[in-house]
Amino acid sequence: MNSNFGEKIVLSIFGESHGAAIGGVLTGLPKGIKIDFDEMEIQRLRRAPGRDKTATPRKETDEFEILSGVLDGKTTGAPLALIIRNGDTISKNYDNLRDCPRPSHSDYAAAVKFGGMNDVRGGGHFSGRLTAPITALGTICRTALLEKGITVGGHILKIGAVNDSEFDKVNISAKQLSVLNKAAFPVIDSKAEEKMRAVIEAARQNCDSVGGMVEIAVTGLPAGLGNPMFKGIENVIASALYGIPAVKAVSFGAGFDFADMLGSEANDALYYDKNGNIKTKTNNCGGILGGITNGMPLIIRVALKPTPSISKPQQTVNLKTKENVTLTVEGRHDPCIVPRALPALEAMLCVALADILAGEGKF
Amino acid sequence: MNSNFGEKIVLSIFGESHGAAIGGVLTGLPKGIKIDFDEMEIQRLRRAPGRDKTATPRKETDEFEILSGVLDGKTTGAPLALIIRNGDTISKNYDNLRDCPRPSHSDYAAAVKFGGMNDVRGGGHFSGRLTAPITALGTICRTALLEKGITVGGHILKIGAVNDSEFDKVNISAKQLSVLNKAAFPVIDSKAEEKMRAVIEAARQNCDSVGGMVEIAVTGLPAGLGNPMFKGIENVIASALYGIPAVKAVSFGAGFDFADMLGSEANDALYYDKNGNIKTKTNNCGGILGGITNGMPLIIRVALKPTPSISKPQQTVNLKTKENVTLTVEGRHDPCIVPRALPALEAMLCVALADILAGEGKF
Amino acid sequence: MNSNFGEKIVLSIFGESHGAAIGGVLTGLPKGIKIDFDEMEIQRLRRAPGRDKTATPRKETDEFEILSGVLDGKTTGAPLALIIRNGDTISKNYDNLRDCPRPSHSDYAAAVKFGGMNDVRGGGHFSGRLTAPITALGTICRTALLEKGITVGGHILKIGAVNDSEFDKVNISAKQLSVLNKAAFPVIDSKAEEKMRAVIEAARQNCDSVGGMVEIAVTGLPAGLGNPMFKGIENVIASALYGIPAVKAVSFGAGFDFADMLGSEANDALYYDKNGNIKTKTNNCGGILGGITNGMPLIIRVALKPTPSISKPQQTVNLKTKENVTLTVEGRHDPCIVPRALPALEAMLCVALADILAGEGKF
Amino acid sequence: MNSNFGEKIVLSIFGESHGAAIGGVLTGLPKGIKIDFDEMEIQRLRRAPGRDKTATPRKETDEFEILSGVLDGKTTGAPLALIIRNGDTISKNYDNLRDCPRPSHSDYAAAVKFGGMNDVRGGGHFSGRLTAPITALGTICRTALLEKGITVGGHILKIGAVNDSEFDKVNISAKQLSVLNKAAFPVIDSKAEEKMRAVIEAARQNCDSVGGMVEIAVTGLPAGLGNPMFKGIENVIASALYGIPAVKAVSFGAGFDFADMLGSEANDALYYDKNGNIKTKTNNCGGILGGITNGMPLIIRVALKPTPSISKPQQTVNLKTKENVTLTVEGRHDPCIVPRALPALEAMLCVALADILAGEGKF
Description:
CATH architecture of chain A: 4-Layer Sandwich
Oligomer: homotetramer
Shape of chain A: globular
Structural class of chain A: alpha+beta
Radius of gyration of chain A: 21 Å
Distance between the termini of chain A: 29 Å
Helix content of chain A: 25-40%
Largest sheet of chain A: 5 strands, antiparallel
Largest interface: A-B, 112 and 112 residues
Number of strands of chain A: 18
């Protein structure tokens, strides 16, 4: 197993939910990037559980320690390692899961792959908790991107049947994104939040969970970044975002809506604006043509499946007795992972963008 | 620019649409894989243009020559190189495109990246023609997968507003897939074909184009293949499929539909079937849990945007005169790329699966 | 900067000599490898400073903590992270080195590359202390190799003008190697040790240092491992061993002696031994032909330059005042790094062999 | 098997000696590099066999065809593919080698690895002929390096017992290198050539072969290039040069001589020259400190073993009959590969340097 991402900026994640510590190493960073500890705290809290009823009441120790690669608050250029000690783990909740895999959880696939060696407690290395070091290290990239005028931000587009307004793909501003990317429950249409929270609360009260969709945008990327074929913007970003647990769909620009569009509707007409800059009148391509940025905002949509750990009785198998059984999952789980997954997705996107830029000598 | 894919099985694609030749090198193949020239011809024809009115009337020379890595009809284990000579190119059609990028085509992004050096004729290295060596080399992987009991096949799920029936995610058979993966216009519901063809023909007659969606399945994959985080099945496959031009969305299992599902609806209950094998009652996860296969069929959906090269007048810029202009694209273009893209997507999926298997010592 | 090694087994090293901690992450390990803590202690002590007069009297805290990837004393298959807290650092010894690079030390090259950001204290990330996590993690690979019948061991071949006997390239035994690879000062000819120690002591008393050469062998490797061209045994091993500070030459088999040999002298005649196994009568090729193992012992020689940190006055530059100056290096440095470098070289060789085997599905 | 080199500039070599063609793909090149066809012809002839008695009288068709990535004599930035058709192959000479591996040739190792599938004719993919595309593609990098003021050149340092003068490690000039790197038999001391040729001719007349050593230098590299640990200058260059057949030793600067040096002798004192540039008084480190360039010339030594294909009767095994046999190798082989290997080593060094520079955004 290898939990590394990137070619030039390489992120290496390690740890198990109930082991000694989780953490990561980020290499390839240039020297002199400021570590913005305030921003790291903001993003840590966005991802952390236990803040409100949309998330698990589990308290996790998310405080990180930077072990290397930073001197006087700035990166030195040497590998940056960061660890987060584990705590508040109740391993007994996982005793029956070693034999009875939770439906739609990684338990079964992991049991086949790692057999008796898999550390099933808390999901082991498969745990969503591993997004904590991703968020911390990705935030370092986020700060560096911001210094280059590149802003990443997203909102919750859909929870169950409730939709937020979509991004205005052409006119998204860095300012709008920088408000969203600090919010605990970021939406464009403030009325959507209440309705979404109601859907999540209903799921929670029903011992159930619910899925959702997020929309993320990036402003300030220069045109000409990326490659055709396999090292394109979409390839690299999709590969990064599928690293966040529960992600089952990633699209760019109009995404699946393209299937029902004519070329004359879909094509983004080019024009010179009054400042002599080339722009497009629409942005269905989501800022990417032939795998390469065109200078318009990047538009990415990601769908996440409902948390599989629900307290409702479910059908599964007992791997030891080889019988069909009914399982009731105990423990403190998230009724909806979407609000906590969004900062991790944004952080991972920052790592991917840093890697793309670094690969072209621009980071 | 680097057009390489893979870690253990490495595919390296080269060539420009109007250069001397296009081709590719496939390394990491085990020795002794049979080259199935009949299958390569079937897949070549599926991808080739000029067969019917859904595609460009352009005739392309797709005949390939294997230069290395094959002896007596079998792979030797050494790098396998394959080239396809170019022909029937009408470069004058591209004269005005050097200055006036086609809306939603890679022209503009490529012009920024490669400046005056980009070989714009026929799209250069960005051309959809590069899917010819991908299809040829991917078919070699397809044959090897088939010998291991792994079958890849897909169908056209949607063209404009016309939908084909969806795969039965639980009961897809290798037999069904092996019929679809030889068809020129594969659909499950035979009535869908006629309606889809009508949509394409209407677009063609309107000097327009139309997008679509395909659904691809894989049967016979063992459980336990893949990894959590960044080297998971979804990461690798998405990264591969975004290498095919026009792809703007890739999802697994229920994909974007997860956003509106409860955990109790989405979770795939596990059970022992009468042969003692572990299966799931539904397959919303598309055969992948925590980045690892669970033994159920893989289900992938891919949306493709309409071909940007349409003959309707469009707004664009003239990069030389720095003016806004109206462009009418000449040349012989596809009103719908979906039927020709499907075999390339399947081929690329075969390369990705071969790489995943090889990385675990199973290819 | 990226301190990662390997394709399938990836070693990622982090830390600075005077930072919070040093450590590493080892990914791609199979599940179920036993962690041999006794062997780790043996190798830790071989590499550790402060044991006798051949090494610096500096005491380093080398005790490691495994953070992840191990459960019940065995690897789980998840990334294995290990850290070593720093201690006993006297940073003031390095104050004048920020401006006045030590001749033949990385100081100057690092100053150019990392400018004011380089953590010069103790050599920062360039420090020989980084061989501590390499040795610890490499020892985990060493144990796994041993379980497959593969033994790595070496001896000090030369210190100054004093030579040890060479390995009998054909008849090296695992038994011989397993004695050498536990010794603090491994030599074949016991008389060589005393003479070598005298050379080192003379250098120490003269405020000087001395270089040397080691010879390392590997028994038990199967024939057929490796590749021609760029992924051959020699390419991978050389690339790994040059990662240990002070290494300036790496050769295989007869190495530089080949320059003065005829083909009829150099060629290793093949024969069937009485058990029907194919062997060679000589082993000038050092067990590698065309980048691939031939089943004979691997023979590697490595030369290390003298420690650059000597207390004799030396000519250098002051980067701040831009003057030529005389520098006297203070601090507690090694008069000869060779005995402490050997276990690190062996450990790194184990990582490289594990990666080669894993890449062929044999680890 | 994978014959790829590099991270940013990726060289992929394919082909077998007696197949349809050999060639390679070079990706990651920037746009606008001039293809210097005259220089390519010079280097082609230096590597080509059949020119004089030091080499095999075999005539090889070395004429290459560039298939992609070049427009109007300059690189476009797209992958550059190049092929060389095979010809003048006498495959019958290899009939008995399929069963009876030549001592110290890759035959035996390849037979174990690739079994019956190995294309043994002419050495297959293991053939020294594969250095033809390496030389051609490396020369494209050489031209690009030259435009940046970086010059690569080498000389034959030793053939048998005959030595050429060594490079003056401090005062090597680009001018000196640019004469050497065009010569068929480059030496510093013109008297050495005649003596070396006599050694080679004696070997040829005795149906034998002889080994040798080359010394290669690079001027014009900026200080600060490279990394500590595993991505250092030495790691990357050694890994590249071991890709050339027959290489068995690679060293930097004083190399193996360091073993017998004191720190006070080995250390290269730093000083400001009269132009205010930092230089070293000696250059034992060969221009590399801590894996990073220091601005002094790079000094590399490479030893090559004698060609294993000699016409003298030799002991080997018959893999079919499982008997010990005597083999007399027929065919037209090189009595000394050193003069022909030098341009290939230089070319491969150019690829490695291009990759290092590209990885830092400087190519």
